[in-house]
Amino acid sequence: MDSQQQFLQKSEEAKDIFLPHLSTDTVVFGFDKSELKVLLVQMTYRKQWLLPGGYVIKDEDIDEAAKRVLKERAGISDVYLEEFAVFGKNKRSEFYFEDFDDTLWHKQRFVSIGYYALYNPDNANLVVDAFSDKCEWIYLSQLPEIDLAMDHREIIEKALLTLRERISYKPIGYNLLPEKFTLSELQKLYETILGKELNRGNFYRKIKNIGILKKLDERRRGGAHKSPDLYTFDEENYKKALANGLNNW
Q1: Crossing angle of helices 183-194 and 200-209, rounded to 10°
Q2: pLDDT grade for 12, boundaries at 50, 70 and 90
Q3: What is the 3-state secondary structure (H, E, C) of the chain?
């Protein structure tokens, strides 16, 4: 069965399963080699790249739909998701299905709830679903060369802007860095997200004052310079900071 026949078959089934006109799209950011990545799937139909998104089951909470879709389409689970925007421009998704008759369920107008997630690519066992050829991490620097469908480039750009705004009052790093890290590695993550350099002394002082780090009795070995101290996140304080915002930042 080719990709167009798959959509025709699933279109009929979808009417009975999913809510009409509502979908979710999740921007999953990863951090690797001092660069941000985003998780994308390449569809079998049209061979374009998309965010891992999908539809909402009729009796399903939207947040739960986003988690389910992310697991089914990419194999990502146990991840912190945060809603950040709604995308509802007229004909934002209809053009993608221009090869089909207007009666196709998938071709109807869909408003998408945007979520972002932070995830360490090293912890991911990615899957490829029945509608995709690939599921891969793509560096943000590579996005200009990627054929992104619908308005998904706009969604990624909005997610990055939101992340930059929220980094001022919510902690970042728990799902992006390895369990043990140095302060310079954490600073590099913040600089990569913000797109600018930060003063080392000010950053170190502020990040220690907010109480989300635990200093370990270990040092990073093997470098040419003095072995730096290793840290880990205080999980309890980190979750409190997510819920209540940062103090002294």
Answers
A1: 100
A2: confident
A3: CCHHHHHHHHHHHHHHHEEEEEEEEEEEEEEECCEEEEEEEEECCCCCEECCEEEEECCCCHHHHHHHHHHHHHCCCCCCEEEEEEECCCCCCHHHHCCCCCCCHHHCCCEEEEEEEECCHHHCCCCCCCCEEEEEEEEHHHHHHCCECCCHHHHHHHHHHHHHHHCCCCCCCCCCCCCCECHHHHHHHHHHHHCCCCCHHHHHHHHHHCCCEEEEEEECCCCCCCCCEEEEECHHHHHHHHHHCCCCC
Contacts of 62 (CB under 8 A, 6+ apart): 22, 24, 56, 113
Q: What is the pLDDT of residues 159-169, one digit of tens each?
A: 999 999 988 88
Rg of the chain's alpha carbons, rounded to an integer? Answer: 20
The b/e string for 64-100 (b: 16+ C-beta within 10 A; e otherwise) is ebbbbbbeebbbbeebebbebbebeeeebbbebbeeb
What is the C-alpha end-to-end distance of the chain, expressed in Å?
55
Residue 174: how many other CB atoms lie within 10 Å: 18
In contact, 101 and 75? CB cutoff 8 Å: no
State pTM to two decimals.
Answer: 0.90
Positive or negative: CA dihedral 44, 18, 52, 148: positive
Q: How many residues are given for the chain? A: 249
